[in-house]
Amino acid sequence: MFLSFEILIFAEKSHCIVNTKEIGTAIKGRRQSLKINQLELSELAGIGINTLVAIERGQGNPKLETLLAVADTLGLQVEIKLKE
Description:
Helix content is 50%, strand content 17%. The chain has 84 residues and is an alpha+beta fold.
């Protein structure tokens, strides 16, 4: 299963554009298929429960390292695309 999102970097100003709704849906679906609750996943990934809840709801702008920790814990592969 692939979890992918894009990071767009522009010459004058850096922007991180992540479709958090799709990422949240993928993370929640994988967590549920593994029969792990949110508290267990947050502890295994080393993140706060509120952070995980926000990610699954597609809210906020989570750090890349946070998304990678969650994805790794769930056995998901992350694909990062850089664009001009």
